[in-house]
Amino acid sequence: MKKSSGILLHISSLNNDSVGTLGIEAYNFVDFLEKAHQHLWQVLPLNPTSYGDSPYQSPCTFAYNPYFISLDELVKDGLLDSYDKTKLGRGINYELLFKNKLNILRKCYKNLFKVKKEYEKFKDNNRSWLTDYAIFTLLKEKNNYKPWYEWKDFKKYNKNEINHFVNNNYVAVDEIRFIQFLFYRQWMKLKKYANKKGIKIIGDIPIYVAYDSVDCWKNPHIFELDKDLKPINVAGCPPDYFSSYGQLWGNPLYRWDYLKKTNYTWWVERIKKVSEIYDIIRIDHFRAFAGYFKIPFGKDPCDGKWVKGPGIELFNEINKHVKCEIIAENLGFLDDSVHELLHDTGYAGMNVMQFEFGPKEEFKAGYDYNNVLYSGTHDNENLLAWYKSLDSETLKRVNKTCGLRSNSKDPHLKLIDCCMKQKCKYVIIPIQDYLGLTDARMNIPSELGGNWLYQMKYDDLSKKLINTVKKITLENKRG
Which of 59, 80, 339, 399 places its Cα 20 to 30 Å from the Cα of 312? Predict the structure, then answer.
């Protein structure tokens, strides 16, 4: 059975003077993957970000992040005359991106006529969410970026009032729709380029949506909100590896009973849309479909409890309408219901190397084929930092399993090689782990600020790195 490997690198982390984009740096990375015999590129959610800059707390589950649009590509295509690079800052500066990039992108609207036919087709194919997202974005601006539930007007979604608003603000609304089109146009071009080189894109989607989102604003009936549109219960998890306190995410929970009556239409539409832009979909926090952790609004994780999820019924309905490959992020507290659901769906599950060496545990060498092994994810320490932090007993087990000695050179590469030797069909390695970095973590769960800032350097994708990745891959027959 064919086995392959790939690299986890978010678009924001591509090397660029500002945030990474879908421009030349993305194409260079695809070329790097091809030369290194990688067949998978995993990214994090591509949705717009909001306060906290997390791609897992988006104001719209269907929309795309305009920060990733390449301004240089727009200039090449004649859709943007020019722009001032100093307004975007050096490195990843979310404050400047928020203040300035949308205004730069709005200037493209005057050149809409050059791609009008293409744009009209995009609008037709995305009617279910596009205009509502544009209206929501514009209303946020007009309300000084307050959350929708604090708005004086339009707090409750009313179709007649919304239509009237669009008629009075058509150009401003259409500018935002056009910006979404610009992302889609660049993304699909990049995806086509990657696919031609034998590289599939793995895209990540969060299970939950943000409370301050167009999804909740437009569809409060599908979430656990009360008559005043305040959350009744919110998402999180009990104490675990990441946090002894537990995690309080704050996302509104779904009314699964209502969604069932609608044949899970909202979820079917969501999966259908992401299947257009990804080759493989990784669903975050999959275990919540079997059972989810419910925390009363305003309370702590210790006040939460487990509640049964929609189970296989949801996925049976999705499979009637969408054919796509799915990876289930089945990490965290797992009981029999999660294992049963994973088996019934047939989806590939996940393992993370850093979690496989707990107290008195041995590395589970010989994973099932229908599995994806990661050296770490966006929530983990860098692999080398993790290795250096091990206590003496765990270090002995890791060294024995992976063929390491106390003075081994480049231990991170030995650890990656150990991952590559497993039976699982896919192995995904964050680029930071190949680079042997120790201070380039992407995210620390439950900490606000200082996350999502890692960015490659311009000389990281060297010939030496290509040869290193290629050698490990081919030796383990994954190329």
Answer: 59
